[in-house]
Design goal:
Elements lengths: L2 H19 L10 E3 L2 E3 L1 H13 L5 H7 L7
Antiparallel strand pairs: 1-2
């Protein structure tokens, strides 16, 4: 799976989580079930936040993530 497809998959999982929970504060060990598939959302969120803090996340991706309540 290429990086864009993977990012979109995790964004979809984040949308599902935040729609259900009312926020995007995903626990570090959270697994989201998306279309019958286990998505390690907690680890991904931690990874993406670290990359953003290090300035390694493209501004386009940052803008997509800021659409979610409590992302930061």
């Amino acid at each position: 799976m290429d990086n864009n497809t993977r990012f979109e998959l995790y964004l979809k999982a984040l949308l599902q989580f935040s729609s259900r929970e009312g926020h995007a504060r995903v626990p570090a060990i959270h697994i989201e079930i998306l279309d019958g598939r286990e998505v390690n959302l907690g680890a991904w969120v931690g990874y993406v936040r670290q990359r953003r803090k290090k300035g390694m996340l493209p501004s386009r991706r940052i803008a997509e993530l800021h659409a979610y309540r409590d992302w930061e």
